[in-house]
Amino acid sequence: MILAYKFQQRLGLGRRLMECLLEAFERGAAAFPEIEACEGIVPVPLHPRRLLWRGFNQSREIARLLSARHKLPIWQDALTRVRRTVPQMTLAREARAESIRGAFAADKKRLAGRSVLLVDDIMTTGATIEECAQVLLRAGALRVDVLVLARA
To answer: Which one of 23, 105, 127, 132 is least enclosed by Cβ atoms within 10 Å?
Structure first.
């Protein structure tokens, strides 16, 4: 369903994906109440060229319902992709971490002393999430919690 949404422009699936993400957040918050202390949502960004090609950032879009229901702002500019990378799904497991290293930058002013929820659609090896979380923490984020829609 996620792949059809992302790559086949089946945007009608978006609402169901948003509901799934919201449900996952609420289940996680029940088990780990500290997650609700996050101050903003940071979607994993796309490189501007990929965003132009796809037309939307799926990580940002699936976070919209969560943002509205829990009154959490989406800080889409807090983390940016500064280097183009090949799609992670095209790489072998071992090459993913190396490919994504140095691909992101974070806004220190926005993040300093803040707790954030990093959102992505699919996590396979965790290389992208790990790199993003490290960049957010180096920029001064106090805490980074992670919410993904699916694991591959």
So the answer is: 23
Which pTM value belongs to this model? 0.89
One pLDDT digit (tens) per residue for the chain, 152 residues? 888 877 777 888 888 999 999 999 998 888 888 887 899 999 999 998 988 988 889 999 999 999 999 999 999 999 999 988 876 667 777 777 778 899 999 999 999 999 999 999 999 889 999 999 999 999 999 999 999 999 88
CATH number at residue 101: 3.40.50.2020
Counting the structural domains of the chain, the total is: 1
SS (H, E, C) the chain: CHHHHHHCCCHHHHHHHHHHHHHHHHHHHHHCHHHHHCCEEEECCCCHHHHHHHCCCHHHHHCHHHHHHHCCCECCCCEEECCCCCCHHHCCHHHHHHHHCCCEEECHHHHCCCEEEEEEEEECCCHHHHHHHHHHHHCCCCEEEEEEEEEC
Q: Would residue 9 count as lying in a domain?
A: no
